[in-house]
Amino acid sequence: MKRCLLKFFCFSLLLVFNAASYAKNTLHCSILGLSGDIRISVEQSLNLKQQEELANPTPKEIQVFVAAAPYDIKIAMQPFGYFQAEVKSSLTNRGEDWFATFVVSPQTPVKINRLDVRIDGDGASDPLIKNILAQNPMRLGSILNTEVYKNFKQDFFDIALNHGYMEAKIAENNIKIDLKKHTANIVLHFYTGPRYKFGNVTFSPSPFSEKFLHRFIPFQEGELYASNQLLALQDNLNNSGYFKNVSVTQNRQDIQRKTVPIQVELELRPNYQYDLGAGFGTDTGVRGLLGLEVRHLSDNGQHLRSFIKASNTQNSLEVRYLIPGKNPTTDQYDISAAAESRRQTYGDSRAFKLSGGYTTVFRNDWRQTLRLSLQQERYNLTNQPKQNTTFLIPSWSIMHLDSDNPVKPTRGHRINLTVQGAIKGIIARNNFFQAQLDAKWIHPISSMNSIILRGTLGYTAINDINNLPLSLQYFAGGAQSVRGYAYNGLGPGRNLTVASAEFRQKVVSDWYAVGFFDLGNSDNSFRMRLKRGTGLGVAWLSPLGTLELTYAKALDNPGTPSMVQFSMGPEF
Question: Which residue stretches of 424-531 are H helix?
């Protein structure tokens, strides 16, 4: 019995010892007498040292830390011009919680009494370099801040080097502090040296000719050097679609010629890219996509894209041959051939099109396309005889797209205007003119909700709508048009009006609850009666685009029927 009691006592003592060994002392620090940036800097400095030295401290280690802290606080205050601060500390504890209080008296700060800052060398007359002096944050009579001083020097080097002053240096650099008078004299002389120019640009081996690759360069050899031009070159090559990775670096400077040679390393994307996709939408039913892109058809960047799309209502095949323009970052030509068939309740059509186009991107990312198409189409509307038409159709379109994310945008807009037509007698049986304006706007109300507005206006001038190919006639209705009405169930007509307002409320992650109101129609008259649809739904901003499932009611159909509709695709 005694032996059992002895074992129990030893075991209990061991538990108490273990509990004591795992008890964690914690130090809480308070700093009084400081405010603003000084307080933040001092607290950050003290917290960092505490994390490094007091991970699992003993009472003795805490006492040593608190005893040394006043010196650390004084050192942390010096960059702000306070070199004679006084710090009083106190330490108390309640169990494992220790409380340190530091009362700081900053005393008189050191102020700038003399400020001699100048720039010598070729850059002294350069407006970009002269602007450095104009933005000097240090002023006579202001409190000395050594961090501001360091940042000002670094700004000089950044701007000078980014603009080709490769020999930039500081000729004289000193701060003399008089603690008795609380003054500082600053002497800071910059020397820029000569401004360098762009040297030769060389590319790593690739299937593309040097002549073609040089068309991506936004500068000429011999132009004044600017680092932002190197970023532009890298962006141009990255956005071309030919390369997986692009690295633009400076070679060793040519001191004799005052030039900076540039080396570009290119990692190619595969020559062949295959795309395979499948989906479902209430407008089209089950659909599939098979695509092929060939990127390296020639050494001047010509490439080919082709795809086959198939669904319950529409099948299409298109082959497009693309030819980079003089400036491949903004200009492109294309030649394409396409075949398309439609099978829907309002009629059937089979069309074949040959076209050539020129696309250019100009100021603020506006994209303009000029196109000439030869279109042959055989079609019939319900209860109408079959027709064959051939049109030579010139068209012009302009688009602007801006968003904060290409896949999951939370803000942005798209505007697209297309004008096209044909002239009787020039490979056309009839005259027609058509203009269509599409717009969409996503605007966040807060981090949790947003509003989406979209609209379409279309106008067609033609004597007899039945003489217009079915693919060019207007329809409305469907998950991407007026919800609550069947896909292309409104129309056909010469004119088109669609407007929609949608409110999205975040539920969790990228899932949103949706409420909307749509209206629109397609008719031959401007005074068409707009059909209204409203409902609720859910949207998921997926990595593949927005998936939206809605329940909508058609307010202007007898009995106000309802419809579940599903759509999937990019917002813009």
Answer: none
- The dihedral formed by the CA atoms of 436, 545, 534 and 479, expressed in degrees to the nearest 10: 60
Q: Can you tell me the distance from the alpha carbon of 381 to that of 379, in angstroms, rounded to the nearest whole number?
A: 7
- Please tell me the predicted confidence (pLDDT) of residue 560: 86
At residue 295, what are phi and psi to the nearest 5 degrees?
-95, -25
Query: pLDDT tens, 425-471?
Result: 999 989 999 999 999 999 999 999 999 999 999 999 998 888 899 99
Which segment of 18-27, 121-130, 156-165 scores lowest on mean pLDDT? 18-27
Q: pTM to 2 decimals?
A: 0.78
Which residue ranges form the domains of the chain, and what is each CATH number?
Answer: 23-105 (3.10.20.310), 111-191 (3.10.20.310), 197-268 (3.10.20.310), 294-508+518-529 (2.40.160.50)
* Sign of the Cα pseudo-torsion (28, 33, 36, 42, in order): negative
Pair of tokens at residue 130: 């002269």
State the DSSP H helix or E strand holding residue 237, giving kind and residue range, or none if neither: helix 227-238
Output the CA–CA distances (angstroms, integers) from residue 508 to 200, 268, 443, 538, 547, in the order listed.
53, 39, 19, 11, 15
Average pLDDT, whole number, for the chain? 91
Of residues 127, 254, 121, the one with CA closest to residue 198:
254
HSE of 478 in the Cβ direction (CA atoms, 13 Å)? 18
**What is the rounded distance in angstroms from the CA atom of residue 162 to the CA atom of residue 488?**
56
* H/E element, 570: none
Question: Can you tell me the distance from the alpha carbon of 424 to that of 389, in angstroms, rounded to the nearest whole number?
Answer: 12
C-alpha angle with apex 441: 436 to 442, nearest 5 degrees?
A: 155
Pairing of strands 259-268, 243-250: antiparallel
Query: Pick from 221, 172, 224, 154: which is nearest to 194 by CA?
Result: 224
What residues contact residue 301 under an 8 Å CB cut-off, 6+ apart?
Answer: 208, 212, 240, 242, 323, 324, 328
Take residue 13 and report the two structure tokens written for it.
Answer: 């003592």
Q: How far apart are CA 213 and CA 328, in angstroms?
A: 9
Is residue 345 predicted with pLDDT exceeding 90? Answer: no
Element (H, E) at 336: strand 331-344
Comparing C-alpha atoms, which of 391, 352, 392 is closest to residue 372?
392
- Secondary structure (3-state) at 6: helix
